[in-house]
Task: inverse folding
């Protein structure tokens, strides 16, 4: 259990680190695109050139929230809520595997392998 928890923590740390690294590149792109679109809109007097900034801004806000904000805490809270109130959504098809079902699958696989060898 301790090892499994450490692996989970490492995966979460990698996910946050990846978000922060991606934010650096996306932030640079967003800044350059915003400046370029703003200058183009002013020079050409076409305000519709500013329209792409809106969806790019939403993506930027999501990335900032993911890298440095409280997104991970809100997702964890929602997951805990699902586990307590909507637990039936988490049920596996055919229920939880039992020792008998695992053994049955193992025997079927080993008999198939021996059949294929012949």
Result:
């Amino acid at each position: 259990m301790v090892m499994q928890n450490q692996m989970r923590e490492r995966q979460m740390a990698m996910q946050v680190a990846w978000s922060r690294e991606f934010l650096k590149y996306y932030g640079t792109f967003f800044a350059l695109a915003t400046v370029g679109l703003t200058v183009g809109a002013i020079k050409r007097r076409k305000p519709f050139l500013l329209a792409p900034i809106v969806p790019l801004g939403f993506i930027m806000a999501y990335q900032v929230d993911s890298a440095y904000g409280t997104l991970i805490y809100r997702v964890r809270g929602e997951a805990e809520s699902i586990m307590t109130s909507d637990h039936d959504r988490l049920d596996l098809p055919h229920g939880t595997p039992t020792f008998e079902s695992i053994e049955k699958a193992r025997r079927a696989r080993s008999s198939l392998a021996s059949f294929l060898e012949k």
